[in-house]
Amino acid sequence: MSDFSYTYTQPSALKADAAGSSLQLSSFSEEPATSGTDCFFWGRLRNSWLAARGLSTLAKVVSSRFVPQSAALRDPIVTAGAGQLRFEAFSSCNGVYARLDLGPEALDGEFLSSGTTNVDFNEPMVNALARIARTEPVVLSIGQRELVLERAAGRVVERKVALPERWIKGLTSVQAYLANMEEKLRLTRVQAVQLVQNIPAGAAKIDYYLLLRGPRPSFAPVASPGAVRVGGVHRLRLLEGLLPLCDAVRVYAAPDGQAAAFLLELGGGHRFLLALSADVWRGFSGEGNQLETLMEELPTAWVTNANQHFRGNEVFNPAMFALEHDLVPNTVDRLCASLSAMGLLGFDLADNQHFYRRLPFKLSRIVSLNPRLKNARMLLEAADGVQLVGIGAGGRTEARVRGTGVWHTVVVGGNEGPQCTCPWFSGHQGQRGPCKHILAAQMRFL
User: Fold this and answer.
1) 268 found inside a domain
2) Do residues 441 and 391 both lie within one domain?
């Protein structure tokens, strides 16, 4: 099922002329233009070769798939704002997220407006990026300066791409993981090269743990204090072309071990982020790690006002935002989760702050893109869909929740974590977010 359909006025291309080469990314924004221009940024790349290596790696991520039945996603997105360009993409299986950030030091040009768009990375574009020389001047144009329509005298070249709903769902889960990650290791350039050399051969069938043995990074199949869990470690080969170029690698992990991230500091305002889901078969779109935060609906005015504030500021730190506006952290978490569920927020690990994507503000997406949340609310609305059984020691509440032809026993509250007898909970043990039965019981009794 598709939630988006994109139309391009012309294919992307690398054009050469007497003044140098111009990299033109054909684009489409889901949001109507309001600034009078459909060009977000126009200018020169200070290190075009390094930027091209980052974009080529991004294209490599997009074309990769680690689950055979996954559908292909071919088009990354780019956000222009706060003096930066951020290119984002998922692997076709949705279990790998990548982002290339080009900061002010990497750019010599003008931001004509802020915006987010889907960009066309076709095969000629990928081949052109591979041919950019080290000292070659390249001008980057995001969007088009003018719209050319052909009637009797000409034609407009269009490319249409349908993106599935998991595009937004994946961005929501990645943002939630990144916002809670902690830095675990920092590697030098020499150690980064050693990291590539030490990746186990073949497709890993088990979890590996990244740790330092003396000064050398190593992967072990057994967990140890301070080690970072890396599920599907062979996915790190996507970074083979960039790791030898970086100044440092910062390794992050989610507190529950359900995701890991590698931030490559490339110098000159260039950063590349690669985030991995806990297992190869797990796409970020199915994690559900924001569901409990989204359980209680916030007033529409709160979410609308927060969206206007974040849209205007483009970047913000949630802790500082809470202090400045005298809000409890839980409220800010819920505001961020609501906006993230619409695909509006990303997270920058290096600067420890959110950034804003200029996509349409549609509250309906919060429920439509989270079917477990929608089904939990339907259970609450149904007669006797959620029934209280009893309250035990420590505030543990037992309930019966209607399933498909059966009743499930749910226990919520207390300090031991929620439990349910349904197949979803039995299969995932809460590692991919709560099931709809747990959500319904929490909404009713907690």
Assistant:
1) no
2) yes
Phi, psi of 262 (to 5 degrees): -125, 115
Identify the sign of the CA torsion 312, 313, 316, 322.
Answer: negative
Tokens for 351, please give them: 């600067």
Q: Is residue 266 part of a domain?
A: no
The per-residue pLDDT for range 251-265, each reduced to its tens digit, is: 999 999 999 999 999
Residue 265 domain-assigned (yes or no): no
Question: Which of 120, 143, 164 is the C-terminal boundary of a domain?
Answer: 164
Structure tokens at 197: 């050399």
Tell me phi and psi for residue 13, to 5 degrees: -160, 155
How many domains does the chain fold into? 4
Q: Are residues 7 and 121 in the same domain?
A: yes
How far, in Å, CA of 248 to CA of 403, rounded?
50
Contacts of 39 (CB under 8 A, 6+ apart): 112, 113, 141, 142, 143, 144, 145
Q: Is 267 part of any domain?
A: no
- Which residues constitute the domain of residue 222? 171-259+273-283
The two tokens of residue 415 are 């300090």
Residue 44: which H helix or E strand, with range?
strand 39-45
Enclosing H/E stretch for 20: strand 20-25
Residues 6+ apart with CB under 8 A from 294: 334, 337, 338, 341, 366, 370, 373
Taking the whole predicted model, whether its pTM rises above 0.85 is answered as yes
Question: Max CA-CA distance within the chain?
Answer: 79
Is the domain of 10 the same as that of 115? yes
11 in Cβ contact with 26 (< 8 Å)? yes
User: Within this chain, do residues 381 and 363 fall inside the same structural domain, yes or no?
Assistant: no
pLDDT at 142: 78
Instruction: Calculate the CA 5 to chain-centre distance.
Output: 20
Q: Give pLDDT tens digits for 342-384.
A: 999 999 999 999 999 988 899 999 999 999 999 999 999 998 9
Same domain, 363 and 375: no
Between helix 300-313 and helix 329-340 the angle, nearest 10°, is 80
Neighbour tally for 212: CB within 10 Å: 14
Sequence-distant (6+) residues with CB within 8 A of 280 are 66, 67, 93, 95, 203, 204, 231, 232, 235
Query: Which residue, of 331, 347, 367, is where some domain finishes?
Result: 367
- Nearest-CA neighbor of 445 among 417, 410, 420, 421? 410
Whole-angstrom Cα distance, residue 316 to residue 50? 28
- Both 277 and 188 in one domain: the answer is yes
In this structure, are 22 and 113 located in the same domain? yes
Q: Which value, to the nearest 10 degrees, does the dihedral of the CA atoms of residues 250, 255, 257, 260 take?
A: -20
